[in-house]
Amino acid sequence: MKKSLIILASLAFTLNVFAQNDVNMGIIPAPLSVVKKQGSFVLDKTVVLISNDIENAKTADLLNAFIVSKGGFALREAKLAVAGQKAVILTSKGAELLSKEGYNIHISPNQIKLNGAGAGLFYAVQSLMQMMPEKKKDKITLSAVIINDEPRFKYRGTHLDVARHFFPISFVKKYIDLLATYKMNNFHWHLTDDQGWRIEIKKYPKLTSVGGSRNGTIIGNYPGTGGTDNETYKGYYTQEEIKQVVAYAATKYINVIPEIEMPGHASAAIAAYPDLSCFPDRDTFINEKTPWSGSRKGKQVQQTWGVFDDVFTPTENTFKFLEDVIDEVIGLFPSKYIHIGGDECPKEYWKQSSFCQQFIKDNNLKDEHGLQSYFIQRMEKYINSKGRSIIGWDEILEGGLAPNATVMSWRGEKGGIDAAQQNHDVIMTPGSAGLYFDHKQSASPDEPLTIGGLSSYAKVYAYDPIPKELTVAQQKYILGVQANIWTEYIESPSKVEFMLLPRLFSLAEIAWSKPSNKDFKNFSEERVPVHLARLDKTNTNYWVPTPIGMPDKSQDGERFKIELKAPVVGAKIFYTLDNYRPSENATRYVSPITLIVPQGQMKILKTIVITPSGRRSVVVETILNNGAVLIKTK
Ligand code: TNX
Fold first, then answer.
1. Which amino acid residue places its CA nearest to atom 5 of ligand 1?
2. Share of the chain residues as helix, strand and coil, in percent rounded to the nearest 5
3. Which pTM value belongs to this model?
4. Has 193 been annotated as catalytic?
5. Which of 197, 285, 298, 346 has the fewest CB atoms within 10 Å around its CB?
């Protein structure tokens, strides 16, 4: 008992030293400028909290609640600082001189002053909370510093697909909390897809009663061989719940962008209202890659992943339906942007349908791509007439871009480059650059089931959302950057967290920090380990990084010096050289090791990281080779 207390205390001390010594004061994303000063401010219960602007009351409460949890005391709130009285001051005075969402923090021995308006002040508090070390004898000591900060991009987004798997409101709020902590300001809520319609629409109740439920879910990796689990899978958000989430997000300065998919990814809506299909009487085309999913009569909400041919037909009935849906959506979401999908819409049914072919002729459209463009442009016009703007995935470029659309570039950077060159706003979210957080985080076979791909947090960090191909004038169309969490293979909140963290940290830094302030060594070795150690004490799951300094490729030579560092403060590293999988029973790494490999031989170094709470990294290995013929190991 005593021993574990000592360990805990020393972990707290280490965290303390880490954050305060760091050039970025432990803050993620890295602030614009940090200037350290002499001395320190001692926060204890004698300090008063001054915040006179009514609009800042919530932000002041947030800070005070945090101090209660961290220090065990609340600050007394006061109107004015009396001379000599130590104070934490939150103020928006003069904040009009700061850039939007910008803030500054001045910590001197007498005062902590946070200056910013709205989101800016909220971000100042987030930074202060991140800087705060553990208490010692009911005091929290903060080094004196001046921080000036502002975002690089005005759009900093994270998406969540709740159609393939559904996540309860309580988790959506937790997700929003995580985004806000890292100064993200847009939550893209992917509410409809082939496998489920998740938003209540009063005028069309079957969207959720029928479209919100599927009869099974594919087992394992698509296309798989194991069939579906034959279990009903359902869930949707009521309009009341949606309003709650939107209001909650607003208190965290996060805008919620709803996505209603059209004209493709429409199976769930079509299952509810078959007249929305080109062929209402045709049974749902399951998927030729998954014949085992059987023939089921009528229209079905899909049980497998992929892309499906049964898409919206461009009849007046469909447009009326979509406009009605959009009307209700607009009533629920104050967001300037409404996302209307536009991706992966197969043209097969439009080709087969005599109605669609006649429609193409009547409207002088070139072909089915022209029809896709017509569809999006018509919906854009409607949404614009309600004072809102559309976002679409980069397929909306095909056949001609809708005049005011913002493009989300996901199939690489090309869509974004094309759109910016056509003077359209762009949000960069290329899967190839690691922004698909449904991809696996390392090449280790220990990674859980994912869609594939590889997106390490280092890869995300290395990405610059401004494509080199753009001129300075075109660069201003890049509004920002987003990561997407598609949930075909993510069925629980805990796995969403696992896929999100620590990649969210990298995303936040490329979205917020100036490229000149980016420094992967400082990020991964100084700050990430502190943030993960904090998470480690909570019930929030995360991917445990592999040891810092572990070579990711095999090394040639005779003499190797292996120098590793724990990627989570307080975590232990264990290793083997005998080709067994390491665990807590393997050798513990405590200091650099020198390995000599005789000529013609090799050694395989395998490591695992185990955090204070017992979370484990994947096992990774490096071959240290001195001229041996390599054999493949597991
Ligand atoms: C492509 S990104 C999709 C999604 C999938 C995702 C899986 C996009 C616009 N469409 O429907 O879930 O890939 O990574």
1. 486
2. 35, 25, 45
3. 0.96
4. yes
5. 298
